[in-house]
Design goal:
The protein is of the alpha/beta class. Helix content is 36%, strand content 17%.
Length: 441
Amino acid sequence: MEMAAGVSGETLLQRDAELLWHPYSSLSEPSPMRLVRGAEGVRLRLDDGAGETVEAIDAMASWWCMIHGYRHPVLDAALRDQVDQFSHVMFGGLTHEPAIRLAERLVEISPEPIQHVFFCDSGSVSVEVAIKLALQYQVARGHEGRTRMLTVRGGYHGDTFAPMSVCDPVSGMHSLFTGALKEQVFGPQPPSGFDRPADDPEFLAWAAALASIAAEHRDEVAAIIVEPILQGAGGMYPYSPACLKVLRDLADEHGLLLILDEIATGFGRTGTLFASEHAGIDPDILCVGKALTGGYLSMAATLCTTDVAHTVSRGPGGALMHGPTFMANPLACSVALASVELLLSQDWSAEVSRISAGLASGLAPAAELPGVKDVRVLGAVGVVQLGGPVDLQRMTEAVLRRGVWVRPFRDLVYTMPPYICTDEEIATITGAITEAIAEGN
């Protein structure tokens, strides 16, 4: 594939360094960037600015959302068809078929009590809306003093203010804002391990601690909010489904709502369509995003039960007090519906299981390498945890030389590949990660 004619990669990257902030980046000391010249299937075409163009498997699925890969004909067609009708209309006083059909489909596939949908701009906003719902719900029930959230250490829920307040206040990324954020109630992080049994001493101690905290703060807490089964940006940390059962029981016992943030875990990533299915429990409020549109456009949704929706609607104000300008954007709704239908039209569970097996076997040798603390796989998520911080630039370059794009963070080198990756591509990903770690140690 030839690079398109136009401005040189070197010039564009120089402009980028002068003008643009990237996620968690400095303008005074900008990190090296690679220019994307094209993408198709699971591969990116990258320009390094020095006249060289390389292809690399996107082992990150573009931060976990591009589950069907790039330039998928079904999703491309959904966007084109909607553009031919209209690209956007306000959702105040107006509605449209893509929003209605997508809402119907999301309700159909969500846990049974979920019956109502609020469309949002992004995952972080969906958490904001979920917290607003919980607060308005408690006010409507006469519990004005219930203004805090109960969560666990190690979580990550987004970068806007309400989500930042329920992220881990110590090991998270938002300690600079301590004092400006709402002070929430934090319990201990669940004991690690998806397969940890419910009679394990560490689990029992954790459950007892959470029960004590919930009882102590019941009159000031509106809801419990967690990422089910897998804490994502907090450390790719899996925990037992039994923990969710404890949280569900505590919410019921104390009149709290249970909010499940499935932005990263929804749509099959952990092996079930929604991660809560591993535990057999249902949330009162559900947040989804990322893979919702197959990575094509920014969109998320906050879903809730009829009890939550009607209680809020009968409360002060008579409405959920939120309304984004681009709420239910028709382009996003159309491609999201196409993405969901595409996922469900195939044996996605078998594909995720296949990827999981490939990640487990391919990353297993990394466990024997010096400096490696842990190797873990859950669904289509593969993680190598090192004994110390990753050298981001060195590790990125080492993996890229082997034809794979990853974005390590903290002490983790991990992959959340697109579901369309072949066995050979999964082997390339795991081999590149393992070899790069071996090279650096």
